[in-house]
Amino acid sequence: xxVVLVPGIGCAPWQFDRVAPGFAPEPVRRLELPGxxxxxxxxxxxxxxVADRLAEQVPTGSVLVGHxxxxxxxxxxxxxxxxxxxxxxxxxxxxxxxxxxxxxxxxRAEAVLRPDWRRTLEASMRSSWGPHxxxxxxxxxxxxxxxxxxxxxxxxxxxxxxxxxxxLAGLDVPTLYVRSSRDVDLTVLRxxxxxxxxxxxxxxxxxxxxxxxxxxDVLEAIGR
Length: 224
Description:
Pfam family, one: Abhydrolase_6
Shape: globular
CATH superfamily: Alpha/Beta hydrolase fold, catalytic domain
Organism: Kineococcus endophyticus
Keywords: Hydrolase
Strand order of the largest sheet: 2-1-3-4-5-6
Structural class: alpha/beta
CATH topology: Rossmann fold
Number of domains: 1
Domain AB hydrolase-1: 3-221
Number of helices: 10
Helix content: 40-55%
Order of helices and strands: EEHEHEHHHHHEHEHH
Radius of gyration: 16 Å
Low-confidence stretches: none
GO molecular function, one term: hydrolase activity
Number of strands: 6
Largest sheet: 6 strands, parallel
């Protein structure tokens, strides 16, 4: 059973370094989002095209662990390719499930269409890092800002424009949502589908990258 690790938008596979050894002896495969690193871009950049590209690299029966946008893409992948995954883990992915939270997310989608969208992106990333290891947080933010805008902007907009509730309700694969900073109502989330469970790490001050800031707690949550 292969464990496939998918980072978030503007993020890189090295960000899983602190959790990857914990999946031994299972083989681990780290992917990049299209348009990131050595991965060629997809056109058009949509959640569907990104999910389909990732699906080409995922062995049947894999456990997919996706952080942030990597988790949203993993969710869409599971919906579009039934039977490909055996488990799905969503690390602090932007998947609100209440009307008020969805409205806040939709207003942010509008901000991505404005000329100063990169400033909005930088502010969002900095504010979501959390109190742990400020220098590491600066490295993460720098990586996001250095990623090709042609890959980042449309994908970020697609994530913010998505209503994930129908996709979550239709999942046919056991799924774990690990919340550390997102505005996701875990009770409502669990109620959408009996195959969806959730763990809350919010009290740890982990920020949006729990696999970097509290890796042991992430591994314990997944193992449990």
